[in-house]
Amino acid sequence: MDLLSPRPSVGQIKPYRPVRPPRDGRRWIDLSLTHNPLGPSPLALDAYCEAAARIHCYPDWDQDPLRHAIARRHSIDADHIVCTAGSEELIHLVAQAFAGPGDEVLCHERGYRGFIKAIRATGATAVVAAERDMVVDVEAMIDRATERTRICFLANPNNPTGTYIPADAVQRLRAGLPSHTLLVLDSAYADYCRMPDYSDGTEIVENSDNVMLIRTFSKMHGLAGLRVGWGYGPSTVIEAVNAIRGAFNVSLPAQMTAAAALSDAEHEEATFAHNAQWLPWLSRELERVGLRVYPSVCNFVLARVPTDPSLGTQAVIDHLARRGILVKPVTDYGLSDCLRITVGREEENKALVVALAEILG
Ligand SMILES: Cc1ncc(COP(=O)(O)O)c(C=O)c1O
Predict the structure, then answer these.
(1) DSSP one-letter code for 285
(2) Which among 258, 264, 283 has a CA at the least distance from the CA of 342?
């Protein structure tokens, strides 16, 4: 009798193992995940409490109030929006709907690892285009496209590099890909990037019939624990995702809280201002203690630990842990000498730099 086994590509998926603060009663400074250091908006918290009295009810299956709140906030058409349990679910659903065994799905070298996982789950082949010094290389991506390329995933800005490519490069990518390839723009960190040449991709979705935009409430809105993401795209894509998603995939508290979060412009501005103040500070201070920091437009930085045979990346991680600070190793991105460090609150950023100076000198 054959043993039960999943498809071979599923066997290649490495389960995600986030860094976890030990449950030792200490107050850890956790800079390993990309949380909003200011937490959620007070308006979102009120809505969450209000939702508590209604959790015996199923949520809106058509996600109407949340889709309309997103549509109003971003001046887009609610009929072209779908909401999911985090943007990660949407990445999986799009992959599932458009790719399968025998197909190829394109992504980029240091691109968000959720793409590879979603691709492997479908049985399609992941084709990975090289980057240049931690930045997406559009021409390399176009070169790797074939008649079998069903989807091209682009994280812009990208995690864990923190870098972005300008809107005209995204247009060039679209123009260079085959028309049968769906371009998926994952703009999870768009709210943090106000560079004049950057776009989250809204216009390119509106001017094409083969581009999908993915956004999340986990970062700027500080709702990572609730799991809400959304997509904006052509009817074909929205209908396909709606066809395969769980009818009640976004919980009632998640829908109500996310809609309320969108109405708190003050909290968004405070979050942006905090990041705009501390991201450059952190980048400068990390460079001062000897790390190489890649230019980031996100709420984290990618930092390379100096090559020193007596001091590996793990030694730095261990030292920080002894000081009660967690950062993220990025070995699974082929970056064993780098760390991803999230911008924290003022006292957290300062404690990190003090601890790094102790070990790096
Ligand atoms: C680029 C990118 N896309 C998508 C996600 C998934 O976010 P969520 O599922 O919390 O919306 C992340 C999370 O870290 C990310 O960095």
Answers:
(1) H
(2) 283
Gap from CA of 222 to ligand 1 centroid (Å): 12
231 contacts 202 by C-beta, under 8 angstroms: no
Quote the ligand 1 centre to 325 CA distance (angstroms): 22
Ligand 1 nearest atom to the CA of residue 91, by list position: 4
**In angstroms, what is the span from residue 54 Cα to ligand 1's centroid?**
28
Give domain 43-261's CATH architecture.
3-Layer(aba) Sandwich (3.40)
Q: Is the pLDDT of residue 77 over 60?
A: yes
Nearest to 156 by CA among 121, 125, 209, 197: 197
The answer, yes or no, to whether any atom of ligand 1 lies below 6 A from the CB of 33, is no
pLDDT tens profile 92-102? 999 999 999 99
pLDDT band at 342 (very low <50, low <70, confident <90, very high): very high
Render pLDDT for 166-178 as a digit per residue (tens, 0 to 9): 999 999 999 999 9
Q: Where are the domains of the chain?
A: 19-39+266-360, 43-261
Assign residue 114 a region (left: φ > 0; alpha: ψ between -120 and 50; beta: otherwise): alpha
216 CB near ligand 1 (under 6 Å): yes
Q: Can you tell me which atom of ligand 1 is nearest the CA of 224?
A: 10
